[in-house]
Each structure stands twice: as C-alpha cells, then as structure tokens.
Q: What sequence folds into this?
C-alpha cells in the first residue's frame, strides 16, 4: 500500500499564506491565492473600500517567504533578507506592484516592503538585500493605508509579467572527443591526389583517405613508414609529430591542414553507415537503398528514442504511379575550434535525386521549398539523427574507428525562455498559408 506525503516546507509555506490572508481580511481588503501553479507570486491583494464595500480593481501582487527559524542577522529591532536573483528579476518586471512579506507564522509576525520602491536605487538592487525594521515594516491591519498608497493607479491597466522559465538550448556543435594522437609527414614525388590513389591501389593493402597532399608533402594520420604508404613517400623523409601541434596551432596553415584531415576522417567514419560525401554540393547524405525502398534510422532525444526516415521516394502529382524524386537526409559540415576544444558544426539539409543517385534537376527549388516549411522540431530531429549516428558505439561487426570520435551536442542553460504556446500557433498558421499558396508542396516527415 503506497502512502502520500506532504513535506514540512509545504506546510510552513501554507501557514505563511494563512497568516497573510488573515491580516489582509482584517484590513477589509480581499485576498486571492494563486494556487499550486504559482511561479514567484503567491497571491493578490485587491483594495476594497471598507466603508462602502466597493471593490476597486487596485491590485498588489504578493510573494510570501515563511520560516520557523531566526531571521538572517536578526536583532531585537531588525533583520536581513537576501532575495534570489531570478526572483528579483521576475518581481521587477511588469507594471503591477509587488510586495514581499517575510513571516514567522508560529509567532504570528510578518513584515513587508514594496519590491519596486525598495529596489529603485540601482546600488540596492545590486546587493539584493532587504533590511527590515521590525517596527516600521510590520505587516498588520494598520498597513492598509500603506498598501493603498502603492496600489496600481486606476488609469493604468495591470500587466502581469510572464513567470520565469528556464530552457535548455541545443546547439548544432558536436564535440570532438578524440582524434589520432600522432600524425606523419613525408616528402613525395607525386603532385596530385589522384596519382597517389593510383599508386596505393597498385601496391594494395589497407589504406584510407585520411591524408592530404601539400607542396609534394603528405600529411596523414596513418603511419607513412609502413606499407603501402612508404611506397608513395621519399625514403628517409618520414617524421612523426603529436597531432596537437596542428590541432592547437595558431598558424592558419597548420590549422587548415588539421581540419582537412578531420574532414577526410569524417568521410571514412561515415562510409560504413551508408553515408556519402558530395564534393560538388559539399554535403554528407544517406545513399539510396538497393531496392529504393524507404530507410529509417534511430535517434535519441533526452527523454526517448525515435526513428526518422532518411531516404524516401515521392510520387508524381501528374502520374501517381511514377516517382517524381527521392529525398535524402543530409548535412553540411564544418570543424570549428573554441579554445582547445574542437567541434563539428552540423547544418541539416536535404539532397534530392531523380533516380536515387543523380541529383534532380529541380534540386534547388525543392530545397528552397522544404527549407521554407521546416520548423524547429523538424530541424532538431534531423540534427539529433546525425548526432546519434556520429556518437553511436561500434558493434561486433565493425571495429572502432581510430582517428575520430564524438561525444555530445553542446547545450546551454538559459534563465529565460519563450512559452511555446505564444508562438507555435502563429507558426502553424503561417505554415498553413504557405502550403495552401504553394504550387510545389513538399511533404514533411
């Protein structure tokens, strides 16, 4: 049998609210608690004419802070209270007056100040500290006149600031967790990359594309003094270096060389996963399935797993039995450095082909159309797909790639967010308008 519990802090908080309500009612004013969903304001006081009973719609917002312990720096006639930064920012927003009431319910004592009046001085605002005088600031029925004096004027509408909302921002920067610890440099007689490829193929043996050719010198994450590499290098010229001499270099030449090596390593890492690179369009993309049927891949969010279609055909509007084009999930890549940390900047995009392989002649128009329709959830889903693909662990059938690995997307905690309901409806209406006006409607998945 399960039990439900209410902790002591909740009871103490409610006792503070009850004390405030009792005093407010003794003033002849009205008290409206905000309920369990409050986010910085515990209730509202409405000024009422005690003689006629008429309510005035003059409103004060109230934040209650109750304790059963001695107040901070408490003496016989004063004490201190330090406000939380986020609370203070919230209370100072909007044009409705806010009062802070600090209480000790067990002793039936409460004290109050007007937040906006007290922190009008920027120097006081910086300290976030309130110095309460136990005589002057006592919250009691005699405080009625003081509340009336700070209540919102009749000729001004009351605006309530939105509650503070924290958000987690997910960037498109995927952290590089490791790269090859060593690189080799050697002189070569070859001038073109194609010539080196031809020679490597003729020698045979395992080799990859993690190398660059600069001014008749080869730089590579591979050991150039081993076969087949030594067959394309001048004897006795191979030197080994710590990769960080390039990775953390402040000279543009070495930094560019390192980025190029990372790029070729990325191509090798993604190749077994069915992801190819198009140097003309400068993007990575999922290649077509052999039977041209849809392909889905898993991806991971913070709370759940999902699947997303990364290759799919779309029927012709004129001839429904015929395929108009194929759409491939893709991304543009860029390696960037922040301090000593390298990141892969992922920009989700799409590739359109007419037969699953060759770029569709309407590629540019189709890309513009879907970019116009893609909203944040769709772009985020694409980003998470690529992040999942690039960080997934190796399996039994595939050895761990030695030259490049990634950890996680960089995220940022922000103190202020936007309520989705305030902008999502407008965004949906705009998308509907675009869809209804568009001659080339592109489906979203």
A:
């Amino acid at each position: 049998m399960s039990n439900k519990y209410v902790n002591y802090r909740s009871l103490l908080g409610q006792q503070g609210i009850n004390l405030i309500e009792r005093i407010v009612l003794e003033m002849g004013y009205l008290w409206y608690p905000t309920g369990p969903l409050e986010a910085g304001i515990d209730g509202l006081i409405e000024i009422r004419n005690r003689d006629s009973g008429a309510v005035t719609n003059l409103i004060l917002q109230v934040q209650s802070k109750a304790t059963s312990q001695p107040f901070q720096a408490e003496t016989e006639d004063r004490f201190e209270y330090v406000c939380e930064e986020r609370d203070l920012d919230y209370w100072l927003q909007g044009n409705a007056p806010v009062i802070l009431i600090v209480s000790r319910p067990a002793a039936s004592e409460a004290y109050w100040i007007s937040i906006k009046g007290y922190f009008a001085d920027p120097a006081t605002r910086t300290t976030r500290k309130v110095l309460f005088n136990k005589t002057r600031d006592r919250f009691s029925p005699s405080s009625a006149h003081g509340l009336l004096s700070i209540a919102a004027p009749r000729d001004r509408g009351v605006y309530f600031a939105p509650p503070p909302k924290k958000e987690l921002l997910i960037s498109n920067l995927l952290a590089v967790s490791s790269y090859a610890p060593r690189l080799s440099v050697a002189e070569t007689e070859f001038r073109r990359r194609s010539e080196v490829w031809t020679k490597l193929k003729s020698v045979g043996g395992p080799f990859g594309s993690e190398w660059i050719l600069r001014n008749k010198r080869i730089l590579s994450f591979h050991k150039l003094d081993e076969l087949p590499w030594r067959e394309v290098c001048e004897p006795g010229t191979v030197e080994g270096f710590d990769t960080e001499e390039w990775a953390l270099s402040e000279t543009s030449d070495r930094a560019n060389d390192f980025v190029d090596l990372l790029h070729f390593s990325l191509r090798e890492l993604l190749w077994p996963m069915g992801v190819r690179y198009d140097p003309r369009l400068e993007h990575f993309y999922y290649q077509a399935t052999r039977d041209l049927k849809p392909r889905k891949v898993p991806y991971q969010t913070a709370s759940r797993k999902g699947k997303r279609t990364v290759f799919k055909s779309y029927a012709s509007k004129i001839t429904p039995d015929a395929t108009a084009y194929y759409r491939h999930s893709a991304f543009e890549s860029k390696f960037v450095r922040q301090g000593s940390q390298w990141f892969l900047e992922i920009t989700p995009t799409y590739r359109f082909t007419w037969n699953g392989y060759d770029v569709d002649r309407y590629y540019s128009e189709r890309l513009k159309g879907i970019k116009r329709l893609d909203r944040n959830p769709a772009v985020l889903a694409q980003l998470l797909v690529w992040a999942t693909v690039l960080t997934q662990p190796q399996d039994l059938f595939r050895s761990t790639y030695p030259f490049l690995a990634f950890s996680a997307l960089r995220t940022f905690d922000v103190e202020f967010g936007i309520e989705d309901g305030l902008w999502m409806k407008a965004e949906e209406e705009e998308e509907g308008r675009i869809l209804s006006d568009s001659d080339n409607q592109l489906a979203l998945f």
Observations:
- The chain is about 30% helix and 30% strand.
